[in-house]
Design a protein that fits this description.
It is built from 9 helices and 9 strands. The chain is an alpha/beta fold. It folds into 2 domains: 112 residues; 209 residues, Rossmann fold (3-Layer(aba) Sandwich). The strands form 2 sheets. A 5-stranded parallel beta sheet has the order 4-5-6-3-7, sandwiched between helices. Helix 1 packs antiparallel against helix 2, helix 3 runs parallel beside helix 9 and helix 5 packs parallel to helix 7. It is elongated and about 80 Å long. This is Stress protein.
Length: 342
């Protein structure tokens, strides 16, 4: 397979261009078939001679298949060079994963497909750093959202150099099954996991401390945290539906809107209850990249074509109630790379 030209666009931009081209091809196909169906009605009514309908449908199908073949070729040319954070979990790149020295350009969320294009699966890659929070909706099976969340957290850690990011896991109700975070060694838990999952009153305190950090950075103040603490804090809010109905809901809203630009990216996960159809919940979700945790619809921003996103989930993520092996491996590698030396 030929090497990509050094003048080619990056993988993230390539995937986005392929998605745009495929969406426009779909729109053209739909327009052509609608025109053909109108013509068929005229043929049936005797207003037009028969035969043109079949010809137009065949031409539309041929153009769509040709476009799809070209787009598959574009992806096939660049995918062998994809780095782990943007590759499927079963890709060979993960077998040789090493900590990065710089920030990756993006991380894989899943694959996009359309019924009319059965042979084309377009990678959906989220740029880094995050400019907006991420919302993960409940899936069709209990635990889908938590499994997807920890899969994305694994990718996030793999995409950044050691010492850059730490996790702050918040589960006010404490029913999301993330207690396994306390099973890592105390130094790792303290330095990279924010002391473990925060529940009950500790969840409210963690939210306030994160907001204090955001406010300090937004006004250009000095960060008074220990210098060994990673500067980027990935806030993972489990049971997001309950969080948006609790007494600290206004803090969650502020963190979603102000956190990402201040080095505090936010992931909200519907693990237990679905979010209520409140104005606040609607505002939060509109501020986020809204992702399904099971196969679900995603519309493009060019022509509004509906695609199906199949999330990329770790094979041993289960229901998010235990540590996936790859998450543990990546976290341990970060811990070793950042451990203080005597």
């Amino acid at each position: 397979m030929p090497e990509p030209s050094p003048n080619e666009v990056g993988y993230l931009d390539r995937c986005r261009l392929v998605w745009e081209d495929a969406s426009r091809s779909l729109a053209a196909f739909h327009a052509a078939t609608e025109h053909a169906l109108t013509l068929r009605n005229d043929e049936i009514a005797g207003r037009k001679p028969r035969g043109r309908f079949e010809q137009l449908m065949a031409e539309a199908d041929r153009r769509l298949r040709a476009d799809a073949a070209q787009l598959r070729e574009e992806l096939a040319r660049v995918e062998p060079q994809v780095t782990p954070e943007a590759a499927p979990f079963d890709a060979p790149a993960w077998l040789t994963w090493r900590p990065r020295a710089d920030l990756a350009e993006g991380m894989l969320l899943g694959r996009l497909s359309a019924a009319e294009l059965p042979g084309l699966r377009v990678p959906l890659v989220l740029p880094l750093p995050w400019r907006r929070a991420v919302w993960i909706s409940r899936g069709t099976v209990p635990g889908d959202s938590a499994a997807y969340a920890w899969s994305l957290v694994t990718r996030f850690l793999a995409a950044v150099p050691p010492g850059v990011v730490g996790l702050d896991v918040i589960d006010a109700v404490g029913l999301s099954g993330a207690g396994w975070l306390h099973g890592f060694d105390p130094a790792t838990t303290a330095r990279l996991l924010g002391g473990g999952v925060a529940t009950g009153p500790a969840a409210a305190d963690r939210l306030r401390r994160l907001l204090d950090l955001v406010d300090l950075r937004l006004i250009g103040g000095e960060d008074d945290r220990p210098s060994a603490d990673p500067p980027v804090r990935l806030a993972i809010i489990l049971d997001a539906g309950a969080a948006l109905e609790g007494e600290d809901a206004h803090h969650v809203l502020r963190l979603v809107e102000d956190g990402p630009p201040a080095g505090v990216p936010v992931m909200l996960v519907e693990t237990d209850a679905s979010a209520a159809e409140s104005v606040r919940a609607l505002r939060v979700r509109q501020s986020c990249n809204d992702l399904p945790s099971s196969e679900g619809p995603v519309a493009d921003s060019w022509v509004g074509a509906e695609w199906t996103l199949t999330p990329e989930v770790l094979p041993d993520a289960g229901a998010g109630t235990h540590a996936p092996a790859l998450f543990s491996h990546v976290l341990a590698t970060h811990a070793r790379s950042t451990a203080p030396h005597d």
